[in-house]
Structures are given as C-alpha cells and as structure tokens.
Amino acid sequence: MPSQETIEAFVKMVESGQHDAAIERFYTEDATMQENQGEPRKGRAALVAAERQMMASATQIRSWCVRPVLIEGDTVVIQWIFEFDLRDGSLLHIEELAHQTWRGDRIARERFFYDPAQMKPVKAR
Predict the structure, then answer these.
(1) Please, how many CA atoms are within 13 Å of residue 10, restricted to the half-sphere of its CB?
(2) Pick from 101, 116, 115, 122: which is nearest to 31 by CA?
(3) Measured between alpha carbons, how far is 110 from 34 in angstroms, rounded to an integer?
(4) Tell me: the pLDDT tens digits for 51-66?
(5) In the prediction, which pLDDT does 124 show?
(6) Which residues, other chains included, contact 40 with Cβ-Cβ below 8 Å and sequence gap of 6+?
(7) First and final CA of the chain: distance in angstroms?
(8) How many CB atoms within 10 Å of residue 26?
(9) Is the pTM value of this prediction over 0.70?
(10) Which residue, 19, 2, 22, is CA-closest to 58?
(11) Sequence-ordered list of residues with C-beta below 8 angstroms from that of 83, at least 6 positions apart, any chain
(12) Class of domain 4-123
C-alpha cells in the first residue's frame, strides 16, 4: 500500500514534466499500462520507451493533478489534465482518470480512462 508521501512524490514528478523518470522510479519492473479497452503495454522498459516517444512528439507538456487523489488500500485514482504543444504547432488537451494498482510503493498496473474524441489536436491559439 503506498503512503500519502509516495503518492505526493509521484504526482509532483509528473507535474514537473518528468513523465519518463516517474515511470522509472514508481513502476514495478513488470508493470502494465492500458489505454481504455486497448491492449496493455507490458514491462517498465517498454513503458518508459513509449513515454519518451510521446514526449518527443511535443515541444512542451503541461501536467496537472486534479485533487483529491483517491486512495483505498492498494488502489489509487488520479484525475489528470495534460496539454501538449505538438511539434506541428497544434495543441492536444487530454483529461483522464488513471486507475492504479500499487504493489508496495510502486505501480504494478495502470489503466487510463478518457474520451478518445479528445485525441484530435487543435490549432494552437
């Protein structure tokens, strides 16, 4: 079961833009990540590689945790807002819920829930 301090450290790292480092630090080696009903990605190394690819598609990423973070035993739910300034000049705004299963102080399984319609970038203002 993760401590409140561990959850706060994880959130702070993501909000500071260290998405890939947060995976390296807070996910188990055999962790899985799943987008809605998609096929889960497996293994921390693969998760970090996918995150770095996503990060490379943007010139800037802004990340906010919408409080409160819900914690019940090993289950944590976080509402996130992400804004990506994409390299083509467009903006991607994503709001999602991350449903996590923790094993001690690391995430073993994570599933994201979001409306796929918001995955269409819009022209920057």
Answers:
(1) 22
(2) 101
(3) 6
(4) 999 999 999 999 999 9
(5) 66
(6) 32, 33, 34, 111
(7) 43
(8) 21
(9) yes
(10) 19
(11) 61, 62, 91, 92, 93, 94
(12) alpha beta
55: exposed, middle or buried (Cβ count in 10 Å: 0-12, 13-18, 19+): middle
Identify the CA nearest to 26 among candidates 114, 100, 124, 111: 100
Structure tokens at 99: 């449903």
Long-range pairs for 4-10: beta carbons < 8 A, 24 or more residues apart:
4/71, 6/105, 7/69, 7/71, 7/76, 10/107
CA-wise closest residue to 54 among 97, 94, 27, 108: 94
What distances in angstroms separate CA 61 from CA 6, 13, 15, one per listed residue? Answer: 23, 13, 9
CA 116 vs CA 32, 39, 108: distances in Å: 20, 15, 24
The tokens for 6 are: 């561990």
pLDDT at residue 76 tops 70: yes
Per-domain residue ranges of the chain: 4-123
The helix/strand/coil state of 12 is helix
